[in-house]
Design a protein that fits this description.
Elements (H helix, E strand, L loop, with lengths): L2 H8 L4 E5 L3 H13 L3 E5 L2 H10 L4 E5 L1 E2 L2 E2 H11 L5 E5 L4 H10 L3 E4 L4 H12 L27 H13 L6 E4 L6 H11 L7 E5 L8 H6 L16 H4 L4 E5 L6 H13 L1 E2 L8 E2 L3 E6 L3 H7 L4 H7 L2 E4 L10 H12 L6 E2 L1 H9 L5 H15 L4 E2 L1 H4 L2 H8 L8 H19 L4 H8 L3 H11 L6
Parallel strand pairs: 1-2, 1-3, 3-6, 6-7, 8-13, 8-14, 9-10, 10-13, 15-16
Antiparallel strand pairs: 4-5, 11-12
Helix pairs in contact: 3-4, 7-8, 14-16, 19-20, 20-21
Length: 459
């Protein structure tokens, strides 16, 4: 060990443990870390790595998957159980996707494929060293999203477990699949994971996979070069480039067509994308968080979603509870939502109105509660929301009778919603603004519902 190296290790710079049985790899990693101002200890075996871990505290561990006396997964699990503040990144053989997934499931922060690309290595190191310590706030800037105002509102066991899980997921780079019903706050959870992670200062790019025409998907995701097709007058970045260094949130990922799923799988595995019309690939540093209200495993079984992509996206699953599973949170949600809907003159609820809200099943979850409150604030008088202002009785009756129709709950609710919108449009001469006002929802919400339900206004 040189004198310079010794002095470096005695300083206060973050320390990194490098575990690899190939001397040239150890030297490459050590040199790269040194140029970044970091100290490194190098081990060639699992046993040697254990001895280092017993003596020193590390800001990061880089370990090969195959070692002479064991596997890198042993080190991942050891650090996870005894040294939880130290992120671990694994180095896998080229094309060993299964090993990378296994490491991420075991708790690895991220992975690199051999031969190690120095730009990806530096990006990984910067992300790992910049991880927020435990106890970081779980809130985001007030940006008006979903569950209140950028926060997970409530103190129920279900939402407390989600909040704790988000904190753990924020300390990893592993792909996350968020499951849950429509309106349960999947995008909010994705934003919180990003906000609490080392990527918080980089972009969070949400993409609704169901809203992009299939013919435009490749260019929208990966970008294109000037002249790649008619109308491509300039080079343009795609979603992956826009999210570089940050998080790409793929909402309604089950809606991706199979050809696009193949391209997405390669981009995730290789961490590279090729713009339409380009002959070369470019590296991208993006964390993937995906979500859908559909059961993705059933889509795999039905042949509409690739199994290999499913396993790449569903490394860690976060389940968002339905509002009916955490109804004790309703009063807090009502308070937060009303403060946002009516910041200047927030109405009060009668006892009967609050009791009704606490007993309602919410097939549309938090999003439905927000719509109910928006409608009620428009209908109420003297800044007081009564039971009649909520208009819950008809919805409750429809839910109780649903079991006799042979329809699924989603089909039944869609039919009722479609009928209500058509009636409102007919009454207002198909004036969308007036129809939205009559329904007690925003114009934007009405437009979304019309598109989702496939309503033709000349029906």
């Amino acid at each position: 060990m040189t004198t310079d190296k010794t002095e470096r290790r005695r300083g206060n710079s973050p320390r990194v443990l490098v575990v690899d049985d190939e001397e040239d790899i150890r030297e490459l990693l050590d040199l790269t870390l040194a140029r970044m101002g970091l100290s490194a200890d190098c081990a060639g075996t699992v046993a040697e790595a254990r001895r280092f871990l017993e003596k020193e505290q590390y800001s990061l561990c880089l370990t090969d998957m195959r070692l002479p006396d064991g596997e890198g997964l042993e080190i991942v699990r050891l650090i996870g159980s005894l040294y939880g503040q130290t992120p671990v990144a694994v180095i896998t053989a080229f094309g060993s996707a299964d090993n990378a997934v296994a490491a991420l499931k075991a708790g690895a922060f991220d992975y690199l494929a051999k031969p190690v690309a120095l730009d990806q290595l530096r990006s990984l190191i910067k992300s790992a060293i910049n991880i927020p310590q435990s106890g970081a706030t779980g809130d985001m800037p007030q940006d008006g999203t979903a569950d209140g105002a950028g926060q997970l509102i409530g103190s129920s066991p279900a939402i407390s477990a989600v909040r704790e899980m988000i904190g753990k997921l924020a300390r990893s780079q592993a792909p996350v699949y968020i499951s849950g019903e429509s309106g349960s706050g999947k995008e909010l959870a994705a934003r919180l994971i990003h906000h609490q992670s080392s990527r918080r200062d980089a972009p969070f790019v949400p993409v609704n996979c169901g809203a992009i025409p299939e013919s435009l998907m490749e260019s929208e995701f990966f970008g294109y070069r000037k002249g790649a097709f008619t109308g491509a007058d300039n080079d343009r970045d795609g979603f992956f480039q826009a999210a570089n260094g940050g998080t790409l949130f793929l909402d309604e990922v089950a809606d991706l067509p199979l050809p696009m799923q193949v391209k997405l799988l390669r981009a995730i595995q290789e961490k590279k994308v090729r713009k339409v019309g380009s002959a070369t690939e470019e590296a991208v540093d993006v964390r993937i968080v995906s979500a859908t209200h559909r059961k993705l495993k059933e889509c795999v079984e039905a042949g509409t979603f690739r199994q290999d992509l499913y396993y790449r996206l569903n490394v860690i699953e976060l389940k968002m509870p339905a509002l009916r599973e955490r109804q004790e949170d309703v009063p807090q949600l009502v308070d937060a939502l009303l403060s946002r809907i009516c910041p200047d003159s927030r109405p009060a609820l009668t006892d009967k109105a609050m009791q009704a809200l606490c007993g309602y099943a919410y097939p549309g979850n938090v999003r439905e509660l927000e719509n109910i409150l928006e409608r009620a604030t428009a209908l109420c008088f003297d800044c007081q929301i009564g039971l009649d202002d909520l208009q819950l009785a008809a919805a409750a009756e429809n839910q109780e009778g649903n079991g006799l129709t042979g329809e699924t709950l989603d089909d039944h609710l869609n039919r009722i919603e479609r009928q209500a919108i058509l009636e409102a449009l007919a009454k207002t001469g198909f004036n969308r603004t007036a129809a939205a006002r009559l329904l007690g929802i925003t114009f934007r919400s009405l437009r979304y519902r019309i598109e989702r339900l496939g309503i033709e206004e000349n029906t």
